[in-house]
Input
Amino acid sequence: MSAHAIDGKTLAEGLRASFKARVAALAARGRRPGLAVILVGEDPASQVYVRNKVAACEAVGLFSEKIVYPADVEPATVLARIADLNADPKIHGILVQLPLPRHFDEKAVLEAIAPEKDVDGFHAENVGALAQGNPRFIPCTPYGVMKMLEANGVDPAGKEAVVIGRSNIVGKPMALLLINAGATVTVCHSRTRELAAHTRRADILVAAVGKPRFVTAGMVKPGAVVIDVGINRLPPEEGGKLCGDVDFAGVREVASLITPVPGGVGPMTITMLLANTVEAAEREAGR
Ligand code: NAD
Output
């Protein structure tokens, strides 16, 4: 039997529509939520991500400010701008598009963002709060995954969850969220031995590896929920299309629910960035 494909695009559209009323209510009180996005350099993928983030803000009525620096900018210039944004009442969320050029200390830049404006959830204080089960901002991609599980009636409590990938952006916060939701969590990564022995136990399998069609049908427990975070560009000889970390055609014959790429986790990520920015503005307005 073929798995049901989770439609991230429709879920994202519904959530974004629900934000409009919250944004309008804040704007009516003179507190329109504002997001500042900082881009350093000309990486084409980063340019696309930043453009999409700004467009998504505008579509739900958020104020957005795009700040672009050349790749050779002095880190002190960027840090000074972050300090200004920290103090700017129009701005409720600050996001620095990663990766930064090599001469930057990425950690120092992330730590310079005021924790209450850190809508990516990468500041050590916010990572700590998430680890303690009391999150202030949840990193957008794993937050989107949790929303997809919830919307499809998947309660992680008591389930075996396996996350492939241990990055600070996806794998680690994903594992923390699943632990906080009551799952028994295994985190696999590049040093894991017998990967399939772990993945075959998973009721919920999350792939965040960055390798096209890495997860195959034989690695999946029958009836599992499979979440594909990967976004990979296939080489031109294979059509140049976007492709996830999961072999969708094969795995959907084994799983019960599966996210496609594109149209799965991707649209949820920016949606949860908007959610975090609206939440930040609501918190500030309530103070
Ligand atoms: P990353 O490169 O930082 O991490 C990849 C992880 O995969 C590492 O922890 C590594 O240990 C693990 N890994 C590599 N080879 C492995 C192997 N053979 N077996 C087991 N584990 C292995 O990447 P990331 O930033 O976490 O992103 C992962 C994927 O998700 C990428 O394709 C990225 O483009 C995508 N992504 C998508 C979204 C979205 O909005 N959908 C957001 C962020 C990242």
About this structure: The first helix runs from residue 8 to 28.
